[in-house]
Amino acid sequence: MKTTRIREKVRRSIWGQPACELLRCELDSLPEQALAIPHEPGGWWHQYVCPDHHTELLFDPAEADALSFACPYGCRLSGEPYRGAWLVFKHQALARYALQAAAVYAATGEESYAALSSNLIAGYAAQFPHYPVHPDAQPWMLKGRAFHQALTEAIWATTLIRGYLLLRDEGAAVWEEADAAAMETFLGLLESSMEQYRHVLIHEKRNPENNYTAWLNAALACVYAARGEKEKLLALVDGEGGLLHHLTIGVKPDQFEFEGSTYYHIFVLRAYFITAEMAERLGVDLYAVRGADGQCFEGMLDVLAGLANDLGELPALHDGPYARVPYAREIAEVFETGLTRYGHARYTPILAEVYRQLYGGPVRTGLEAMVYGTGDWTPTPYRMDQGAVDGLEGGARARSGIPPADDYNQRRSLLLADSGFVVLRRPGSKLSLLADFGPHGGSHGHYDKLHVSLMHKSGAVAPDMGVVPYGSPLRKGWYAGTASHNTVSIGGQSQAPHEGECVRFEEGADRAYVWLRSDQAYVGTVFDRHLLLTGEWLLDWFEVQTGEEAEIDWWMHGIGVMAPAGSPEAWADGIDTGAEGVVLGAGGGYSYIREVRSHKPVLPGLDTCLWRMTVEGTEEQVTAAMVLFPVSEAKLIRTPGVSVDPSRPGAGLLHRQRGRSARFIAVYRDGAEPLSLHFREGTAGGAALDIADGNDVRRTVHFTKQAGLRLAEPTRGA
């Protein structure tokens, strides 16, 4: 990263000087003792979590040292593993300050910031040999020196070396002979350990696709760039487990990382970009490389833009946080780099959202923008008022980063056939969905086949809830389990790890339709989920066939308020179990679920259950109507909340049927006005559903097991 570019962007960009001042002020506010390098190695950051509230513990980078650690609800913890986890954050914060000070020096030329950066880098270089190969690391880990994991060490080291190179670019005269010798020792030790662990992963464990590999490669690339060793870097790119090989085996042909996790997709792409950045320093351009099946960095960015909702929020697929400051910074770095390299306006809504998380609004600022960004693009969410978009002239539109008019609000559906995700969208519809039918995702996968996340243009309605730090028992006990997802579980147990299939995907003039199937979730069981989106509503039709009689549970978890709606008699005969509710069951995550109200059909025949969900952070509502069959029971439930704070209860709905087969039908629409449903049985398992809105417009959907759903033309009246 050339420092002259940083200086020029600060001078020329609208946002450059404010960003530089923000970074300068943060450094200036740090007490001297907060910049002292700990002599203790760090542990595993995932253990920095409250055992009672399951929230991440608080961390203040300006704190010089800490022996007691607080959760947001006032719990105080001490000793291990919390001390070791706190040290991870401290070491990472100091490495970031080293890069930040180098960037401020590159922008201003003020020697004090060069001195601050070089003191941190040289201090760590001198300290690094004194950290032991970590004796307290867990057996499954590849051990580091400064941390339990070599993976954490690789990430931390790339930040330090990027700061070192930034200082060197500017010709900062801050390196004493002893510092230079310590740096060479540090680079040598780092190279040796990273090469050793690459060998273990690639040749002994035969696991070259592991996300570790991308980061071991990135750390080695930084070493080679610092030493000017071009031939070693080229071998790292082309060899087994190298960049090109990892891109081929670690990323699916549809451009999504093989674990099916948005978080690990960002994680791996960031490592790729660091490797490319280092290669560029040695005269090698890797930004347009492709894997054997066309995998490329630009495609990896584009698939995230396709998966993001209309606010630029990325879904929390499989393991990964729902929202977290370090993760937001990683997203900012990746998309600032991508925007600089490929220039696509479709990336700016994602930047708008992460800057909102980091700074309270879509304001382009901070370290990631100053070091990796370029130009006067303003991160803009898709939801910007169309009149405001149309009012911008060509030059202003280009600077704003707003997508072209023919792209705005015209986002289409998306099928990732290899990774097993599908997004349904319709121009003019405020509702959209994302469904998961693909591979399990290895150690970071969830038991969630045929899960559906429901989205609204104003925000999330019923998304995947994300994952808490791995040190919490809720990670596997709740968030990875089937009952925490918007899909079906049987017999109170989670699904088996498996892969489903997409039977049909269609996008027509008036609807988008997908038919998903799973036949390995439970022995002798077949799931068929049909999802049909029009401009007015979304139909979810779920068919279940089992080998033996069982309780079959259909779940929908909202993140706003979920409450009964419609006529008073809909829930009048329900049983209110009180504010706390009663625990629903024992295994499969059910011990975390409390039932607060239940409802069975009032009459022996069919019934309709109505409920409303609010859109997160807004007053917008989504109203749902669900067909209740005589064997049905609907339950309002309380569960752990979004993984950012599980102690804030989430709200959900359980539709339970018992038998060898089950049929679950729900229809969603934007607003508080409910739809009217009329279900009709047909022959040979066929059926029809009449859906009428408040304007007396009716559409009929026909179902057969052989052909799935067919949407008839709209009619008026009875």
Key terms:
single chain, 718 residues, alpha+beta, 17 helices
Instruction: Give a short account of the largest sheet.
Output: 13 strands, antiparallel
Q: Please, how many helices?
A: 17
Q: Report the β-strand fraction as a percent range.
A: 15-25%
Q: pLDDT under 50 segments (min length 5)?
A: 382-408, 567-577
Radius of gyration: 27 Å
The portion of residues assigned to helices is 25-40%
- Summing up helix and strand content along with how strands pair, one would put the structural category as alpha+beta
Q: What is the mean predicted local confidence, pLDDT?
A: 90
Number of β-strand runs: 25
Q: What spatial form do the alpha-carbon principal axes imply?
A: elongated
Spatial separation of the terminal alpha carbons = 68 Å
Q: How would you sum up this structure, described in words?
A:
By secondary structure, this protein is an alpha+beta fold. α1 (about 5-10) packs across α3 (about 80-110) and α4 (about 110-125) packs antiparallel against α5 (about 150-170).
